[in-house]
Design brief:
The structure holds 2 protein chains of 2 kinds.
Chain A: E1 2-11, E2 14-24, E3 29-33, H1 40-47, E4 55-60, E5 63-64, H2 70-75, E6 77-81, H3 92-96, H4 98-102, H5 107-120, H6 125-128, H7 138-149, E7 156-160, H8 168-185, E8 188-193, H9 196-202, E9 205-210, E10 213-218, H10 220-225, H11 230-236, H12 240-245, E11 259-261, H13 266-273, E12 278-282, E13 288-293, H14 294-299, H15 303-306, E14 308-309, H16 312-315, E15 317-318, H17 323-333, E16 337-341, E17 347-352, H18 353-362
Parallel strand pairs in A: 3-8, 3-9, 6-7, 7-8, 11-12, 15-16
Antiparallel strand pairs in A: 1-2, 1-4, 4-5, 9-10, 12-13, 13-14, 16-17
Helix pairs in contact in A: 5-7
Chain B: H1 9-21, E1 27-30, E2 38-40, H2 42-46, H3 48-66, H4 71-100, E3 108-111, H5 113-132, H6 137-156, H7 164-207, H8 209-224, H9 227-244, H10 246-250, H11 258-282, H12 286-295, H13 299-329, H14 342-351, H15 354-382
Helix pairs in contact in B: 1-3, 1-5, 3-4, 4-5, 4-6, 5-6, 7-8, 7-11, 7-13, 7-15, 8-11, 9-11, 11-13, 12-13, 13-15, 14-15
Classes of the chains: A alpha/beta, B mainly alpha.
Chain lengths: ~375, ~400
């Protein structure tokens, strides 16, 4: 889809990007990352020719971008930046409509499209189309920025630290939404960030750059498990084993959990324990409500009396969570097993600490 | 108690100034136009009851500028100041007729320091009220201009005809209209030319690094040349040019008259327009420009759809500054034969007739106020929605 061949950008004496070659497949999310001044933003901006390369060629769908009119090229590539750059004198509607208007779309089509996009980024169209950027929160503005970049349904999206200017909590939410949106729109995305966790979370492939050069271009799993050089190893840091866990979903590690219904008679409950010291307690709706120690249970009258109540939100994880979250929750609670629940807090199974250890060990190399 | 007291400094200054003005001479009765006369104090001028009413109103102003009442106080302040202004004008008109009874025809009643200071004081208070009413345009305009409307009414019905300034006016009626129009022509043409040249110059300065310094150096230096000197400096080269090319003389380009005046006023208009255009375009968020370009807008589209509308309020603000400044500066143009309201000022100086000076100066002030108000409205209309605090 996008291919960079020996691309170089020099500013006088300094070389910002040095003979960079990179290929990004259709529908892939490629994250450019590296210390500041490594040339990642320059690389991104050369793709839509906001910066012209000094040497080398860039192909999109096999066509040399230098042979295409720069403005036409940019109209076909979505562009979102950290500071968002919404036009303060235009309503949200007009901001999103910029590219469709430049492409001379019919008005009806633009109205429909803006509505679709606002819904896609999770904002109620009726509430937002008449607002001005000064009336939006940072997170809302970022989402409008993404909607604007997607307006004309471009196959390629360039994003320069699109979640950089918001607080960590909002950033997490935007990242989760990004993954969700990407599943729906399946664009070829080149994203620049300096946040490794963000890269690991969002990327199909990570391109690590150092002073203008590409030092490693691999999937996050490989970058974390087999860093190609000392620079990459240092860059991903000592906790790369932990970071790897955030790429792995708990889904594949769920095992059946020993559980009892809160209303089950004591004897039945003890029988179902089958060697387990601890049992998860669920109510009639299969919803997790706590746990019980079999030793305590043996000395008490009923499960209800013996159980320790726990808020399902605090003592369990969702099946969509990552192993890293599971591990973190276990360390926090001091559990060796953590229950996994679905969206309505119904118990699905559990994940064991030992399995997470094994997963970490697998990646060593 | 402390909660109740929250003085507005400007209003307080105005009120104190107003009360102080009551101690000065108000009207002067002169045997003829040029002679020195006898100065009369407030109660001698306006009579006991009138003087009392004015004192009471000023005390009310003082009280209102001290207490904390938010919007109510601001409106009260503005209304009181306007009543004061109107009452003063009405009483002065009455008094002048009374004072001239039984005097010879050559006798004049002219306005003294007290009157003028009162006028300044009321407008100080009105200015304070206007500022306190920020955001309520209707009240602001009502407070700012009702006094002027009443003045216009009093003038048109001849209420103030016994005041010496108006006697001067009746002698120069035709000339007055002519010079007023000339004055408007002078500043109107210069500001228009200054805007047409200044905006591209300002844009150019933002685009070319090497243009920035010379543009600002030149326009700033010119701004420091005293207006009189600039008018004078233009006489010699323009005379030379017009002698060299008689064609130019035929179309009215000469060393004196309207041509050098318009050139000088245009040059003065440049700095505010250029400066504000430059700042206006520079303050546009670079991210907005980057986003525009990155989305596929051409340089021209970015300028027309992003930079120009975002810079517009500041550019118009520059034109406003230039206009108000040009109204004042155009007064000096009379010295090089360009006419305008300055004609009365300089003729008054020449004849040692202060009332003639006033006849020229007061309309300049009023004209400046009107131009300012008009331009403020234009700035407001030219500010795109979504900018600043104004949300509708």
């Amino acid at each position: 889809m996008i291919r960079l061949e020996q691309v170089t950008k020099r500013y006088g004496e300094t070389t910002a990007v040095n003979q960079l070659s990179l290929e990004i497949g259709k529908g892939e999310v490629c994250v450019l990352i590296g210390p500041s001044g490594c040339g990642k933003t320059t690389t991104l901006r050369m793709i839509n020719r906001l910066i012209e390369p000094t040497a080398g060629r860039i192909f999109i769908d096999g066509r040399d971008t230098a042979t295409v009119d720069a403005e036409k090229l940019r109209l076909s590539i979505g562009y979102a930046i950290q500071s968002v750059g919404l036009f303060p004198h235009m309503t949200v509607f007009n901001n999103i409509a910029v590219v469709p208007q430049l492409l001379l779309w019919e008005n009806n089509r633009i109205v429909r499209r803006v509505g679709e996009l606002l819904e896609l980024v999770g904002l109620e169209p009726a509430d937002y189309i008449r607002k001005y950027p000064s009336q939006l929160s940072g997170g809302e503005a970022q989402r409008i920025g993404v909607a604007r970049a997607l307006a004309a349904d471009p196959p390629i999206l360039l994003m320069d630290e699109p979640f950089g200017a918001v607080d960590p909590l909002t950033r997490e939410r935007l990242q989760a939404q990004f993954i969700h949106i990407q599943k729906e729109v399946n664009k070829t995305i080149v994203l620049v960030t300096h946040d490794l966790d963000e890269a690991i979370r969002l990327a199909d492939r990570i391109a690590i750059m150092e002073s203008g050069r590409l030092v490693q271009y691999d999937s996050p799993e490989i970058i974390l498990s087999r860093p190609g050089s000392k620079f990459v190893r240092d860059f991903v840091g000592a906790d790369r084993a932990l970071k790897r866990l955030s790429r792995i979903s708990v889904k594949d590690f769920i095992k059946p959990a020993a559980a009892v219904n809160v209303n089950q008679p004591k004897k039945e409950a003890l029988a179902s324990a089958a060697g387990h010291r601890w049992l998860w307690v669920v109510d009639d709706d299969e919803q997790l409500i706590g746990w019980v120690d079999t030793k305590t249970l043996m000395q008490s009258v009923s499960t209800k009396e013996a159980m320790d109540e726990g808020d399902a939100v605090k003592i369990s994880i969702l099946e969509s969570a990552t192993l890293r979250e599971a591990l973190s929750r276990m360390l926090e609670l001091g559990f060796k097993h953590i229950p996994v629940v679905d969206d309505s807090q119904r118990l699905i199974g559990e994940v064991a600490l030992g399995d997470i250890e094994a997963a970490t060990a697998e990646g060593k190399g | 108690m402390r909660r109740l007291i929250n003085p507005d400094r400007v209003a307080l200054t105005g009120s104190i100034l107003g009360l102080a003005s009551l101690l000065l001479g108000w009207l002067t009765l002169k045997p003829n136009r040029l002679a020195a006369g006898t100065s009369l104090n407030l109660s001698e001028s306006l009579g006991q009851p009138g003087a009392m009413a004015i004192v009471v109103l000023w005390l009310l102003c003082l009280a209102l500028s001290l207490v904390k009442l938010k919007r109510g106080r601001s409106i009260g302040l503005g209304i009181t100041a306007n009543i004061l202004l109107i009452l003063t004008l009405v009483l002065v008109g009455l008094a002048s007729g009374r004072l001239l009874e039984g005097e010879p025809a050559a006798a004049r009643v002219s306005l003294g320091t007290g009157f003028w200071v009162t006028l300044a004081a009321t407008y100080t208070v009105i200015f304070a009220a206007r500022r306190l009413l920020d955001g309520w345009h209707t009240w602001q305009n009502l407070v700012s201009f009702s006094g002027l409307v009443v003045l216009a009414f009093l003038l048109s019905v001849g209420w103030l005809n016994n005041i010496s300034v108006m006697e001067e006016f009746s002698g120069y009626q035709q000339r007055f209209v002519q010079e007023l129009l000339q004055h408007m022509r002078l500043f109107g043409i210069s500001v228009a030319i200054g805007t047409v040249i200044g905006i591209p110059l300002g844009i150019w300065a933002t685009r070319k690094k090497h243009a920035e310094k010379p543009v600002f150096f030149t326009t700033s230096i010119v701004q420091t040349i005293p207006s009189l000197a600039l008018f004078g400096l233009l006489i010699a080269p323009l005379s030379a040019i017009s002698f060299a090319f008689p064609v130019l003389r035929d179309i009215g380009i000469r060393g004196v008259g309207i041509t050098p005046a318009i050139i000088a006023l245009t040059i003065y208009s440049l700095l505010p327009v250029v400066r504000n255009t430059y700042v206006g375009i520079r303050q546009v968020d670079p991210a907005a420009i980057d986003a525009g370009l990155g989305m596929g807008m051409s340089r021209w589209q970015v300028f027309r759809r992003v930079e120009a509308p975002l810079a517009a309020p500041l550019v118009l603000e520059g034109v406003r500054t230039a206009s108000v400044q040009a109204v004042g500066l155009a007064t000096v143009a009379a010295l090089i034969g360009a006419g305008g309201l300055g004609w009365f000022v300089f003729r008054g100086i020449g004849q040692a007739a202060p009332d003639l000076i006033v006849l020229g100066a007061i309309p300049v002030i009023i004209l400046a106020l009107l131009v300012d108000a008009l331009m403020r409205t234009i700035v407001r209309l030219g500010t795109p929605k979504g900018l600043g605090g104004e949300r509708r």
